[in-house]
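[[Per-residue structure]]
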Amino acid sequence: MALAQRVELDSGRTWTVLGSDHLPVGPVEEFLEFMRVARDASPNTIRSYAASLARWWEYVESAGIAWDAVALPTFMPFVTIVRTGDPVGVTRLPTAAAELAEAAESTVALRIAAVLSFYRFHADVHDVPVAGRLYRVGSRRGRSRYVRGLAHLDRSVAKPSPMVRVRGRAPRPTPILSPAQVAAILDDRARFDAASGCWVGSVRDRLLFATLHETGIFSGG
């Protein structure tokens, strides 16, 4: 079973991935070292990558898949495993699938992005062909692992895109406050006391909310 392991170095805290033999996973550690040195990634970023790649390495070890021979059909079950949190080889019954909560789609997208970054690195450095099987350029027939340095300036060049996509949930509609609700919020911050002829409460807070309301940032219907 692979796991993400915290490591304390003289330079600070970092993370690595241990395989079932309790030793650092070579290909993963090489990628994480690239992120630490070349990309100057923060410890939190390294931790996130390590957690995602530990989940991936556990999957390839349990499924008996060579890490450098992955193709799209063998990659797709990993998406389901990340989403459900179930071990490799476990299939939920329909009733259980409806009752158990699944991971947020943003978490699933984060795990997939980490694995794809890992394979793009090994494609560029060691010509590992996996990334070319998980990406497409323009169409499924025109795939390429490589993008020219200034390709983003050339609109005629199709950009590679992953063939595995996770659709995020539709954003919730922005709540709209009624005029009465806005007035209640303003009066809760501060109100004018006619008897004393003074404002009671935080006039500064009332001014802040009133400004947000008048500029449309914080508004009623």
